[in-house]
Amino acid sequence: MTNVSMTNESMANKQMTNDRLGFGIWLIGICSLSIVLVGCGPGLAAVPTPTPLPPTATPPPTETPIPSPTPTWSVRMPLIEGKGERREASPSGRRPTPRPTLPPPKCEDPNCCIAYPPVGARLSGNVIFRGTAWHEAFWYYKVEFRPVGTEAGWSVLYRSEEPVRDGPLMTWVTSTVPPGEYEVRLVVVDKTGNYPPPCEVRVVVLREEPFEFPW
Q1: What digits encode the pLDDT tens for the residues 19-32?
Q2: Is 23 helix (H, G, I), strand (E, B) or coil?
Q3: Which 3 state secondary structure label does DSSP give 10?
Q4: How many structural domains compose the chain?
Q5: Residue 175 and residue 173: Cα distance in Å, rounded?
Q6: 154 is in which domain, residue-wise?
Q7: Does some domain include residue 135?
Q8: Please, what is the average pLDDT of the chain?
Q9: For residues 160, 163, 164 and 168, what is the CA-based torsion angle, rounded to 10 degrees?
């Protein structure tokens, strides 16, 4: 009877030992699995998530500036027909028929001479007279004018006490006189008050048209 009891007690102890051993194995497995999961967690969390790039901004189209039309200026130059004449092109683009060159005035004394404008020149605007006004006993020279076909006396246009040799004598502003035909003469006076034969030239002053803007 005593042997049977001891056998049963031994079997119970063995069963308890096996149960404890199984529980320990199970517990070790659970711990190992937890360690694996904890160790992999940071690795899995460290995987970078791709961040979507913002869309590339497309620059707006560049506007091409349209140049403003340049206004056309029409300036009327002084008209001097004859030597050194300036002419404007005709509207059709064809050049006007050139007129024959006008002869210079005939002066008896080369030291009292109007070289420009020539005889019969048609003038408008500001006209520069050129020539020579010189004398060995020079005092002064003067340029005078008067209308053609009248008995009016000579009117002084310009006077200077500086002699001139082949250079500008004066500038005549033709807008100060009415249009028409005029005689212009150069007189060189010496220190005694005498003077050689004057040099005369006949010209035509045209009516100066007013300036018109193109707009």
Answers
A1: 666 666 777 767 66
A2: helix
A3: helix
A4: 2
A5: 6
A6: 112-205
A7: yes
A8: 76
A9: -10
